[in-house]
Design a protein that fits this description.
This protein is 82% helix and 0% strand. The chain is mainly α and 217 residues long.
Length: 217
């Protein structure tokens, strides 16, 4: 229970720090350097305080003891395993990027095509996460983490700081970068599918050997 509380607080502090990082980047042209550096620390502290307040709100609730809870077979079959820290952090970062992109699009700082392609990339990565976890490839997990937290972030934020004229001049370069990220996702999807094909063939061979299907038919 204690570990869950610490993890809960760290998650909100992490979200606060990431939000502060984006705010500092967007305001880099008008704020002094020392204030920019302080923003992520301040927002991380706010996230931590918010988590403590949320914990206090729920601390008065009574959780039923195991022998007081009746669980039907149907209800038990719907329970899911808790999400890993890796997937949780990636999803939180993706959500922040999507919110920023949508917000900048509404303010007309990003055009519809860039906004749509970026949010679509975020959705694709979100969809791939369970399969990446199942694949168990450390390299693939690292590639996705860098793609989200470094590559995708590094092409969107500098573009947002450009003047209207420079945005028009560099718009195609940004779209090309988003296209390259999408190509990388297709490669990862293909590797996941190939792994699934291998596993399917392996299990079918085991079933054939187990039940001696050739003699039956």
């Amino acid at each position: 229970m204690m570990k869950e509380r610490v993890r809960y607080k760290k998650r909100y502090a992490f979200l606060g720090a990431v939000a502060g990082y984006f705010i500092a980047l967007l305001a880099s042209t008008i704020l002094p350097t020392f204030i920019m550096l302080a923003i992520p620390l301040l927002t991380a502290a706010i996230g931590f305080i918010f988590a403590e307040k949320k914990e206090q709100q729920f601390s008065g609730l009574t959780v039923p003891e195991p022998d007081q809870t009746i669980t039907s077979p149907e209800a038990g079959s719907e329970q899911r395993e808790p999400e890993s820290t890796y997937s949780s952090e990636i999803r939180e970062y993706l959500q922040i990027i999507k919110e920023i992109v949508v917000n900048e699009n509404e303010k007309r700082n990003l055009d519809d095509e860039i906004s749509e392609k970026t949010t679509n990339l975020c959705s694709k990565i979100d969809t791939l996460l369970p399969y990446i976890e199942a694949l168990g490839s450390a390299q693939t997990k690292h590639d996705i983490k860098m793609l989200v937290m470094k590559d995708l972030n590094s092409v969107i934020n500098p573009f947002l700081r450009l003047s209207v004229e420079n945005k028009l001049n560099n718009r195609r370069k940004l779209l090309d970068g988003l296209r390259d990220i999408n190509i990388k996702l297709k490669v990862i999807s293909a590797s996941i599918e190939q792994h699934d094909i291998y596993e399917l063939e392996r299990k079918l061979n085991l079933i054939t050997e187990k039940y001696n299907a050739k003699e039956i038919y």
